[in-house]
């Protein structure tokens, strides 16, 4: 990760401010996201996460500050920014009247791609939705809807993807499915900026974590860097109990997150039991 | 980007037309109320109404019924637009590299198609009920043109309602006065049977000139100056509603 430090960041945010009426929501946000990395924007409800994502996905204009995506200035050229981004908003943005496949074909057409049908079929297969592809999205479960939502965002291979609270409201299996999807995206070179209020989600997924609190980034870095902000580690012996999530997943017969989501560069997960 | 505007609008229009195909009740309910009114006025009340014209009452009534059909149909446009705004799909479209106005135009074109289908159903029922016309092909085209203009004008009003509504009910409530307006016009009874101030209002509100023009076209009579008054109203309302809707839309999408 340190080797990439000199490259132009995929997302560069400088001094973004935004108020709604008299209520300041963002008070000068600075953030860099390296190309091909996953950055988690961690914050509680009302911290300004969604406001920042809306600004970065050109849905809202900041009162002050600048932002560039792939070197393109957001304020000067929002049209070109839209060509390199994709947004998966907080609430699944699928057309419930259309089938899953029709949703994908719709987006492929709007992105002016050739063979929208083939693109749709490929994504249905990648997201295990082939059987459900002919059903209306209104009949989908929350997890399926979210998968379709993310699949729609991947059409046209945008280099930068914004995910606003991608797992809020999902059951544990669906969360893990989403996590796996996001990791695969980053492995394929896509830059991902996601917001979350779940600490474990940030821990599991993110190369870097930025903590947004009361409208500014109060701290950012890798998980290890953030941990070093606290006093030195004290070694204590704690019996490793399975978490309720481990138990639940074992009982319903789905793989536990530590089996599927653990990867060599994330030593963080080994500390899970000590919390 | 504008090179794609037409294509994007086409794709999005296909999407909302598919919505209508999957809930055809929106077209049926649009046609049911005007058909019920037509039955009521022709078979129950019409016998007591003196129109002063030679033709049957249904010939007199149909133009106003067609306007009521369109006025109730555009409520669904506001409703569909409102639902798009409430769900996330609108923001997805706005964050994509597509022509910004194509989202609105798709709803407008869908409204046009849906209302023309409803109007065709109502005209079909009217023919069964004994509506007869001397109209030439040219006159039919002129009627169609006026109805298209009327639909566009009311649809852009519906866009304003859909963009600014806070609730689903609010989105369609704007259409009630529009549906009611033909009743205080020459659509059902001649305006000279009304008391002074009401007659004055009826004669000077847009529906009367539009209804009189369509009636004259169907009867193969000269339209006189009415058509210019009607066109002035239609183009005026269309232009103002379009400008207001677009400015609300631009503010809305930031």
UniProtKB/TrEMBL annotation, chain A:
GO MF, any single term: ATP binding
Keywords: Antibiotic resistance, ATP-binding, Nucleotide-binding, Transport
Membrane topology: Peripheral membrane protein
PROSITE patterns per the UniProt record, alphabetical: ABC_TRANSPORTER_1, ABC_TRANSPORTER_2
Record localization: Cell membrane
Keyword Flavoprotein on entry: no
UniProt biased composition (Polar residues): 266-275
Region of interest: Disordered: 255-275
Domain (ABC transporter) ranges: 11-239
The name this protein goes by in its record: ABC transporter ATP-binding protein
Organism, as annotated: Occultella glacieicola
UniProtKB/TrEMBL annotation, chain B:
Pfam families tied to this protein: ABC2_membrane
Boundaries of every ABC transmembrane type-2 domain copy: 25-252
Record-annotated membrane-spanning stretches: 27-49, 61-82, 103-131, 137-161, 173-191, 227-249
Highest taxon of source: Bacteria
Stored InterPro entries: ABC2_TM, ABC2_TM_bact-type, ABC_2_transport, Nod_factor_ABC_transporter
Keyword Transmembrane: yes
Keywords: Antibiotic resistance, Cell membrane, Membrane, Transmembrane, Transmembrane helix, Transport
Subcellular location field: Cell membrane; Membrane
Membrane topology designation: Multi-pass membrane protein
Keyword set includes Lipid biosynthesis: no
Family: Belongs to the ABC-2 integral membrane protein family.
Protein name (Swiss-Prot/TrEMBL): Transport permease protein
Species name: Occultella glacieicola
């Amino acid at each position: 990760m340190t080797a990439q430090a000199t490259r132009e960041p995929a997302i560069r945010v400088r001094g973004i401010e935004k108020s709604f009426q008299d209520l300041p929501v963002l008070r000068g946000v600075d953030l860099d996201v390296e190309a091909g990395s996953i950055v988690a924007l961690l914050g509680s409800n009302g911290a300004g996460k969604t406001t920042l994502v809306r600004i970065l996905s050109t849905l809202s204009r900041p009162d002050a500050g600048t932002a560039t995506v792939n070197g393109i200035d957001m304020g000067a050229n929002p049209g070109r920014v839209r060509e390199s981004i994709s947004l998966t908003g907080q609430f699944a943005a699928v057309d419930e009247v259309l089938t899953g496949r029709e949703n994908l074909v719709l987006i492929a057409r709007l992105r002016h791609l050739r063979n929208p049908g083939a693109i749709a079929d490929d994504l249905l297969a990648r997201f295990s939705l082939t059987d459900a592809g002919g059903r209306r999205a209104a009949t989908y479960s929350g997890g399926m809807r979210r998968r379709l939502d993310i699949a729609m965002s991947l059409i046209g291979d945008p280099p930068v993807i914004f995910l606003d609270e991608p797992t809020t409201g999902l059951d544990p299996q669906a969360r893990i499915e989403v996590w796996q999807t996001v990791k695969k995206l980053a492995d394929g070179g896509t830059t991902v900026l996601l917001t979350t209020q779940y600490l474990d989600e940030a821990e599991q997924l993110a190369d870097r974590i930025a903590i947004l609190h009361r409208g500014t980034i109060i701290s950012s870095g890798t998980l290890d860097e953030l941990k070093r902000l606290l006093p030195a580690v004290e070694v204590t012996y704690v019996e490793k109990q399975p978490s309720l999530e481990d138990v639940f997943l074992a009982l319903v017969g789905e793989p536990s997150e530590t089996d599927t989501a653990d990867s060599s560069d994330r030593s963080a997960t080994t500390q899970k039991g000590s919390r | 980007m504008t090179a794609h505007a037409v294509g994007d609008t086409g794709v999005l229009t296909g999407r909302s037309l598919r919505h209508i195909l999957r809930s055809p009740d929106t077209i049926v309910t649009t046609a049911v109320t005007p058909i019920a009114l037509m039955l009521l006025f022709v078979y129950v009340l019409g016998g007591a109404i003196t129109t002063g014209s030679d033709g049957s009452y249904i010939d007199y009534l149909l133009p106003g019924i067609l306007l009521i059909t369109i006025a109730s149909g555009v409520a669904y446009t506001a409703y569909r637009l409102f639902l798009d705004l409430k769900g996330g799909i609108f923001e997805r479209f706005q964050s994509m590299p597509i022509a910004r106005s194509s989202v609105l135009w798709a709803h407008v074109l869908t409204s046009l198609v849906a209302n023309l289908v409803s109007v065709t159903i109502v005209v079909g029922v009217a023919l069964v009920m004994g509506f007869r016309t001397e109209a030439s092909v040219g006159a039919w085209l002129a009627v169609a043109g006026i109805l298209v203009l009327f639909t566009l004008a009311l649809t852009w009003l519906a866009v304003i309602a859909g963009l600014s509504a806070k609730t689903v009910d609010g989105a369609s409530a704007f259409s009630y006065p529009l549906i009611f307006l033909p009743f205080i016009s020459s659509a059902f009874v001649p305006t000279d049977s009304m008391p002074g101030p009401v007659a004055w209002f009826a004669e000077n509100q847009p529906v009367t000139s539009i209804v009189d023009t369509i009636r004259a076209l169907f009867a193969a009579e000269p339209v006189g100056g009415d058509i210019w008054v009607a066109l002035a109203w239609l183009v005026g309302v269309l232009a103002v509603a379009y400008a207001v809707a677009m400015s609300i839309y631009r503010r809305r999408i930031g």
